[in-house]
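Continuing the series of single-chain predictions for the mutant panel. This is the parent chain; the variants come on the following pages.
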Amino acid sequence: MPTPTRSAIDPVLEPQVANAVIENAREGIVITDAAGTILRVNGAYCHMTGYTPDEVIGKNPRLIKSGRHDPSFYADLWNALLTEGRWAGKIWNRRKDGSIFLEDLSVVALRDADGAVTHYVGLFTDVTYGGLDPAQISQLAFYDPLTGLATRSLLIDHLGEAVRHCKRKGCHVALLYLNVDNFGEINKRGGHAVGDALLKAYAEHLEASVRQNDTVARPGGDEFALILGEIATPQDVPRLADKLLQRLAEPIEHEGQSFQFSASIGISTYPGHGDDCEQLVGLAREAMTQAKTAGKNRWVLHAGRDDTDPTV
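Parent structure:
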């Protein structure tokens, strides 16, 4: 039998086979034209980024740019594509919900018979944890990669330590859960890069507004949490919350512009609300939502406290 000289697949079926391969691939796939405009993405791409096809087709792949790489990184990537026709490596990108993830990405340039680039095809997998060593995984688990603050996991751990310490000492702990008012408008107007820079500056502002042994955490997005330990009496909590609101109203400078934010703060206390750390976080977050509903730029102590706690 003679050796076939062309594909054994019927040419009529070739597009169907290609579609099946793309849609059933476990890797995220993005196809652009020569100018970098997205023409197609597959289901895995949508699953890993959170975007639907309608939200990305016609856009540039930089839509999911994380802001964690400097211009030279992208210059090297494009130089490899233009000179060698391919690039492979790890790259940080951003999902639709704002979270950062690490991709193992390979990009290849497709050319026509004359050697001109017609398309770029990118394939990637999410290796946020699998692509890192144990020390890096631990760092991601307990410290926010943007601000360096404690994550929610470490917040719970530190809150437990503070509660145990105050049980022995007979003092009080206040958990303040805050949301930066109207911060979403910054991301809409200035983009995530500006938003990230301001979140970092805000985190530094928070750390400078509390004592050195207090914990400042970023559970996610534009939400932060503070553990204030060794409070002598419950009556001190309102005074501390008022002082914090005043400090956080001070303007933040970024690239020659001045930004001023208010905050909505929810508060729970030990022993007033018990010693269950998960519950303390949940109650403080509920109170934060109440503060936002009440008009923002204020603090609210969760109402479901023990009646023996005189905090007002």
